Amino acid sequence: MIIAEQKPLEEICRIIEGHHKILVAGCKSCVAICLAGGEKEVGLLAESLRLYADLNDREWEISEITVERQCEKEWVREMRPSVEGRDVVISIACGVGAQVMQEHYPDVRIVPGLNTSSMGAPEEPGIFLEKCGGCGDCVLHLTGGICPIVRCAKSLLNGPCGGSQNGKCEVNSETPCAWDQIYQSLKRQGRVDLIEKVIPPKNWIPSMSGSPRKTIRPEAVLTPEEKKAKEGVD
Amino acid sequence: MDSVAAHVTSLDSVALVEVMDFPCSTRGQTEIRDRIKEKSLGRFVVAGCSPKTHERTFMRVAASSGLNRFMFEIANIREQCAFVHARSEATEKAKVLVEAATSKCRLLSPAPYELVPVSSKKALVVGGGLSAVVAASCVSSQGFGVILVDQQRILDENAVMTNRLGVPAEYFKETLRGLRSDPLVRKLSGSEVIDFQGHPGDFRALIRTLDGEEDIRCGAAILALDATPIPSEGKDEGLRVINQTEFGRLLSSRTDYPERIVMIIPKDSSGGTFGRSDHLDAITNAMRLKVLLPSAEVTIIGSDVRAYGMCELDYRKAQECGIRFVRCKGEVDIQHEGGPRVLVTDASSEIPLSLPADLIVLADVLKLQDAERLAKIFKIPVDASGLLIRSQIRLEPESTLREGVFLCGGASGPRLVSEELLEASTAASQAVSLLSSPFIEVGGTVAEVDPEKCSVCLCCIRICPYTAPFINEDGKAEIDIQTCQGCGICVGVCPSKAIQMYGCTDAQLDAQSSASIRGGGR
Amino acid sequence: MTDRTRIVGYCCSYGGYSAADLAGVMRIRYSSDVMVIRVPCAGRIDVLHILKAFRHGADAVFVAGCLEKNCHYEYGNFEAKKRVEHARRILSSIGIETGRVEMFNVASNQGWRFPAIVREMVSRVEKLGPSPLRKVVE
Questions:
Q1: Is B360 exposed, middle or buried (CB count within 10 Å of its CB: 0-12, 13-18, 19+)?
Q2: In degrees rounded to 5, what are phi and psi of residue B58?
Q3: Residue B182 and residue B138: Cα distance in Å, rounded?
Q4: Does any domain span residue B511?
Q5: Which among C68, C18, C22, C8 has a CA at the least distance from the CA of C43?
Q6: Which of these, A183, B59, B330, C87, is most buried using a 10 Å CB contact count?
Q7: Which pLDDT belongs to residue B47?
Q8: Cβ neighbours of residue B441 under 8 Å, at least 6 residues apart?
Q9: Is A166 exposed, middle or buried (0-12, 13-18, 19+ CB in 10 A)?
Q10: Whether the predicted pLDDT of C71 surpasses 90
Q11: Please, which residues 31-90 of chain C have a Cβ atom closer than 8 Å to chain A?
Q12: A54 interface with C at CB cutoff 8 Å
């Protein structure tokens, strides 16, 4: 899931400086699960802001709302009564949710309360580790199920660098060397032959660099006729 | 009290205020009941002593007044007010306390309460030693069925008796005989429990027996695990070293006894991984030897002597028989040149002693068989040394955090044989109490998930000490009210505020806190 | 809002609350500035309860749970401790002195400790002064 972390309170307070009617908007999905933007965090941030406001003479009127998923327009639209009349919304959904909100409420300033970082999984309660970099060209079948793009500090594709020591990365002695993990995994699966398969220089086009990636499932896209029929209903 | 009453009368939604002498007395309770019925009241606040002492009483009052038994709140204006503050301060504070209790009371809702039938009247007893035998026999003597499961051969007299010293032989033989022919006790030897699910009154255990796997139902379970001594027979350069249990066996089976015995009791015999009966075992065995071979020279070395209770008499007798006790200072060494000797310094005189020895006997080191695996299966927490944890030492000594599962034997720590016998019968009687009721009451101040708000993040499932939350058929978290103990840890953890608990919701806590801080009408 | 000092203590049934009851039985006096709110387990408390108490006008807040490794509900007191730490971090960012919130572990038979805890919190409020929010809350 998407992992994000709340911005420091001081930074959020600076961002909303000068505003008066503030809505804190959360999301029940990934950010709730990584304990950054669910209803509880919305309540906490709102209460913290109210305390800050009282203490520092800010005229802030703070309200709260949490929706199922802030990236879906249906739910974002449902927020209208809460957004109306607000001059700024602190979105503590991921960067996606914040932007979808902005698209639907173009006249209201939507500001981020979180720093969205990565796609990852909980190692144990409270500890979330990056696993996937969204490179758009997955090679997990060649690397024993371990991503060399994000789990290797240098995103190497064909084996460890000279800094790999005792299975640990030279960047941080607690981080396992991804290529050591890849080798061990392939060994366990009896597929060490795959290590010898050279992965060519990566095609970064499907990845982060470049225009926003658009993914299309043609079978789900509404045909013009369908759109027309729906217009009557919507 | 009148000024407090006056203040409270002025609060919102308060229909009636009465000052009574002893609301908790029978007369007081009746009066409350009458008022509730007269005025069709839906909830009440008692301003008096601690809810810790009187909660149950007022639960009964609520129930008998036709209300849900949780529709009341108690303001503690005695132990936490009148008893600890100066008079005028206490009066002022009492006003606020009652106001806070009233604010909370307004927001109370009827708590779910169910009577679940105890559908299985059998007890599952896991273990094959002394405790298991006693527990099983106690349960069946009350007329309830027992399923006795052990990895070894059950009711093997030798295994049970010679494993532990101090076992009262005759009592034991009789109990074993009785159990062997008891139709109420089903014995599954060479078997082990591999899964355990369900609720008190209706548990399901999966047992791997010699004939395959079997599903059994029971209403209660007793883990009667015995700690058995690790074999320690060895040699220190030709000098034989054994433990007390092995020595006991030697005394029973051989006719040539060693002449000079030195028994060493470890410094830390505080009951950690060593037994509590180290000194008793030593004294018992030493006396046995003296009877069989009066000329034997026995020395018991230890940093102190712990002969609990009546064993003090045995300690005295042992000394009268000529058994030497040396309180040691520092290390105990073994030397071999010129014949094997034990070197020790006597603490009181500080004189170094050199004791020739034919045999060294050490204290038993006990190991709990299979405890970790069973703890996982029965979902009982284990402490740092691998012992199973009991719930409330003083009030429910044989219970575990898992309702319906009881402990006895060495499972939660080393025990003297007499203690084990006592605990086994206590665990049995607790199990029987459960089995003999037609119903078990479950529910009350339990937690509840609002599925609409649940993110299925698994936080509650991961944090609950009792494994009460689970993912239901609709894919959302749900709290099993039969297992929930009402601690509220999950309520605090839920990132989507999907869980609340009866009798302690966020709104109620907030109302209490607001009234506590701002109340008093000044 | 009152003009008197107010310290809120969230006390768990089996730890803090029982100790407070025992202090009463022992007739040990302590400041009436303290208002106890009973919870089943200290682990029930979340950071929001602490923050809200300050907004209502509390000068200090404490959580009293069972002794560590002796929580009646296994480890609720450890959960509470983490949340009190979290509350401290937030209070620090807001500009409220972190000494105003504290976690205590006390056993039900330590009647003498409850008044000691109260004394500690009262003395902190004396040193730090009333809550910086007091001038604002009406």
A1: buried
A2: -75, -20
A3: 12
A4: no
A5: C68
A6: C87
A7: 92
A8: B113, B114, B115, B116
A9: exposed
A10: no
A11: 46-48, 51-52, 54-55, 90
A12: yes
Q: Which of B362, B389, B419 is the last residue of a domain?
A: B362
Given a contact cutoff of 8 angstroms between Cβ atoms, the answer to whether A131 and A119 are in contact is: yes
Judge whether A55 is closer than 8 Å to chain C, CB to CB.
yes
Residue B506 pLDDT: 96
Using CA atoms, how far apart are residues A33 and A40, in angstroms rounded to an integer? 11
Q: Which 3 state secondary structure label does DSSP give B2?
A: helix
Domains and CATH numbers, chain C: 7-128 (3.40.50)
B109, B73 contact by CB (below 8 A): no
C137 and chain A in contact, CB less than 8 A = yes
Question: Domain residues for B88?
Answer: 2-111
Higher-confidence residue of B384 and C54: namely C54
The pLDDT of residue B328 is above 80: yes
How high is the mean pLDDT of chain A? 93
Whether B376 and B195 have beta carbons less than 8 Å apart is answered as no
- The 10s digit of each residue's pLDDT in A18-39 is 999 999 999 999 999 999 999 9
Instruction: Kindly tell me if the per-residue pLDDT of B522 is higher than 70.
Output: no
The answer to the question of residue B417 being in a domain is yes
Nearest CA-CA distance, residue A53 and chain C, Å = 9
Touching subunits for chain B (3+ Cβ pairs under 8 A): A, C
Say if B455 is an interface residue toward chain A (CB within 8 Å): yes
Q: Does B510 reach chain A within 8 Å, measured CB to CB?
A: no
Q: Is C77 left (phi over 0), alpha (psi -120 to 50) or beta?
A: alpha
Backbone angles phi, psi at C25, to 5 degrees: -60, -35
Which 8-state DSSP code applies to residue C74? B
Residues B172 and B193 in one domain: yes
> Given this model, what pLDDT does residue B275 score?
58
Range of the domain at A174: 133-196
Question: Residue B140 CA to chain centroid, in angstroms?
Answer: 22
Yes or no: say if B361 and B215 are a contact pair by the CB < 8 Å rule. Answer: no
Confidence of residue A128 (pLDDT cuts 50, 70, 90): very high
From A93, A118, A143, give the residue that closes a domain.
A118
Q: How many residues does chain A have?
A: 234
Contact between A42 and A66 under an 8 Å Cβ cutoff? The reply is yes
- Is there a single domain that holds both residue A106 and residue A137? no
Asked if residue A59 is part of any domain, the answer here is yes
ipTM confidence: 0.95
Angle, in degrees to the nearest 10, between helices B311-320 and B278-292? 40
Helix H or strand E segment including B6: helix B2-9
CATH code, domain carrying A70: 3.40.50.2300
Which of B362, B385, B401 is where one domain is finished? B362
Phi-psi region of B460 (alpha: psi -120 to 50; beta: other; left: phi over 0): alpha
Residue A72, exposed/middle/buried by CB under 10 A (0-12, 13-18, 19+)? middle
What's CA B306's distance to the chain center, in Å?
25
Q: Is the pLDDT of residue C68 over 80?
A: yes
* Residues on chain B touching C53 (C-beta within 8 angstroms): 513, 517
The total domain count for chain B is 4
User: HSE-up of A219 (CA within 13 Å, CB side)?
Assistant: 0
Burial class (CB in 10 A: 0-12, 13-18, 19+), B317: middle
Shared-domain flag, residues B431 and B348? no
- Burial (0-12, 13-18, 19+ Cβ within 10 Å), B184: middle
Look at residue A49 and tell me whether its pLDDT is greater than 80: yes
In a domain, residue A69? The reply is yes
